Amino acid sequence: MIPGSLALSRAEGKPRASGTLRRNLAAGLILVVLCLPLSYTSLAKKKPPPRRFNSDLMLLDLPDLYQMAVESDSTVLTTVKELTRFAVMQVNEIYGGRFRSPELRVMYQAKSWERRLDGYSSIRFRPGENYLLFLSYHREHEQVMAEDLFELTDADWGRVKLEAEGGTLYIEAMRLLMGAATRPEVEERQAVLIGLLASPNQLAAASAMNQAYRRRLGSVKQIPVLLAQMDRGIAGLKLGAAKIIRRLAPTLPDNLDRGALAEAFHGRIGWDGGDPAALRRESVNTLLAIGPAALPQLKQVARSDADQNIRYQAAVALLDFESP
User: Which member of 56, 78, 102, 144 has the greatest number of CB atoms within 10 A?
Assistant: First the structure.
């Protein structure tokens, strides 16, 4: 017998660990794994965190460009000129902020690296591409480091790549919305936003709807405009209209036919699944806010909506009407 911890395998002619050593090695490996930081042991299983979604900032697929511009130090239309340590941008149009130069620089590599670590696509710029940028000054110790040096205000919505088709929609929307944002008086800004509720530009209209809802703007006079926007079949506009009508419901005058309003609103929603579930849930709340005149429409939703959860939501709303 060979002393020590190793014995020779007759079948393979190779040294093998004795039973005691194997058990000690296994116990040691388990101890090492248990002592590792969680980030190492779960690295292979790590999944990207859910994307942040601010329902007040976004109306389904339509961004609130007005709010994005307000939250940024500068909003500009640019073309990528060259890539150095920064993305050097040629400034084509300025929509907001005090920046007034033909060129600026964007620090983006740190945000790009963070996105790669989270499992998201990295931020890339290529010379010749056109972007609508929402920017914040690069600061260190709360101090602006240079008047032409910026960061993306947000990695997700801080930049909008403008393609040849559809890019003019963003440019037109920014011009319309900045017509409101640059008015010196609050009442003037509000009046322009209310006027944009009827805009044929869906991006401008969606932003105006979101601002009208957040700032409690508008009155019953805007309901025909909101219903007309719903006729366009754009889910984001339908959601914006539903939120405003729900807010206005308590102020509806006594001589307004609430039953006709409920029918007109209900008929513009794709309860068969044609509209997103988030929109249909909000629409149930709008019908509930209209009042007992919306009972027939709520009963239809409770019977026939494509989603069992929404049918249940409508049934609960009906119980609210029927209970003392």
Answer: 78
